[in-house]
Amino acid sequence: MSSTDYEKASNGLDSPQVVEDPIDPTIEPKSETTGQKGVDVAYAAFQESQNIDITEEQFYRVRRKIDLHLMPLLMITGFLQYFDKQAITYAVNYNLRADLHLVGKQYSWANSIFYFGYLVWQFPSLLLMQRFPVGAYFSSQVFLWGVFSFGVAGTTNFAGLATLRFLIGAAESVQLATFALITGMYYKRDEQPFRLLGWYSMNGVAIIAGGLFSYGVGHFGGSVALWKYPFLISGALSVTWAVVLWFTLPSNPATAWFLSPEERVIAVARVQQNQTGVESKVFKSEQAIEALLDPKVWLTALSTGSGNILGGVAAFAAIIIRGFGFTPLQTTLIQCPSGLIDLISLVIFTTLATYIPNSRFAFATVATIIATAGAVILYVVEPTNRWLGITGFWLATGFIPTGFILGLGAISANIGGHTKKITAQALYFICYSVGNIVGPQLYTTAPYRQGLRANIVALSLVVVLGLLQIFYLSWENKKRRAYLEAHRHELNEVDFQFRDLTDKQNPFCFNAM
């Protein structure tokens, strides 16, 4: 259709907040490989896929190959990142505060300052990742966080600890956003919850393994202070693994080393129905502005920020548990069930979200309600009723990650346009950082009633925001259907695919709920 016809079609939309500023599909996009401003890096592969017949068996074979090569890389990295981040919680059980002469709120700030690094470097890091190959840039960040973590073992005071924790947070800031982007590059929407489960469940595995590791550290002998071992071991493992990632983590399916040229075309064709593209190396300011003005971006980001105030419980887990009268060695083991509940919750809810259409936000809300119940139990019980209190701790810390990961997956599933997507990711993790900065500051004086009370308020707000997201996304989808029905003879879905369009510019991009 002509450009004039296209403009008439777009002007007929009832609500410009749903679809706006669509491009003229009659204009042939330019190639990014020539350095001109163009479209998705996978556009050439997409065009090639339109000229070949691809069977379901070929789709399945390529997906299996992606699973076997990509998922282990993400899962091992996810495990190491969480183990590295939580090393301080294992160390505090073995005289970290005494040896580094931490007083007052300094331990709280040592936890919070990690997220200041996260906050400061999140968006610049995502912009650099858009500029450089994803695999190479991300590997460099893994290497850096390993080096910084290893260095913590050599600190002797709060200043050294705070500086390195800030740098660790900065290096790790890109991990979750990168994994969400990669998942969206390689997998269809209905496949994404299981893959999100695959790599995010490593947090639960790391909690279990970390608790057992910390228990084992308590039996170490020698002249090295016990609190140093978590940093030495996590740092060494991350540095070694970064070298492996440098050579094995591909940047996108159109260039994946483990796929043949034909399989790369099939990999791109597999995800065309997502309507959100793969990747673009061109920063588009209009997409960044659109992300800043999109209500669904803010609803998801604010929900994440509120939910991660609960991070104060994780940061002070050992101290809270010991407040119920447990020994240091018992405390390390009692933290393990949180990881197991985390795993079970993720498996159940992501499985349900996979097989029940448009249910991810509903199940995220259910998981948050369970976590809220746990937070209430932890707040109201007396220290003498320690096992009921520990049950509340397990529920609160075990279920909240489910809501977080389903919300994170919604960005990769519902946001189109690469610049808009990384801007939305940045907002998401800015709020994530703020929540994690605030959380530990609420735990300053035992028995930490202020922090435990704040958890209930924050999680209740997450439930409200989750319900608002369901209503808003449903409204958007309804308006899109009405628009497409009114212009069904004027729009061709293929014209909008792999053009690096935002979800508002692409009327065929419906929200996964």
How would you portray this structure in words?
The chain has 23 helices and no strands. With 513 residues, the chain is mainly α. Helix 2 packs across helix 13. It is globular, with a radius of gyration of 23 Å. The N terminus is likely disordered.
Task: Spell out the key features of this protein.
globular; 513 residues; single chain; 0% strand; disordered N terminus; mainly alpha
Helical content stands at: 55-70%
| Shape summary | globular
Number of strands: 0
Give the uncertain stretches in residue-range form: 1-17, 21-36
Using the CA coordinates, give the radius of gyration: 23 Å
- What is the chain-wise order of helices and strands? HHHHHHHHHHHHHHHHHHHHHHH
Percent of residues in β-strands: under 5%
Distance between the termini: 32 Å
Mean model confidence by pLDDT: 81
Largest sheet: none
| Alpha-beta classification | mainly alpha
User: DSSP helix count?
Assistant: 23
Summarize the structure.
The chain is mainly α and 513 residues long. Helix content is 69%, strand content 0%.
Helix-strand blueprint:
Layout: H1 3-11, H2 43-49, H3 56-85, H4 87-91, H5 96-99, H6 106-131, H7 134-152, H8 158-172, H9 175-186, H10 192-200, H11 202-217, H12 229-248, H13 261-270, H14 285-293, H15 295-307, H16 311-315, H17 317-322, H18 328-334, H19 336-355, H20 360-380, H21 386-414, H22 418-441, H23 449-486
Helix pairs in contact: 2-13, 3-9, 3-10, 3-11, 3-12, 3-13, 6-8, 6-22, 7-8, 7-12, 9-10, 9-21, 10-19, 10-21, 11-18, 11-19, 14-22, 15-21, 15-22, 15-23, 19-20, 19-21, 20-21, 20-23
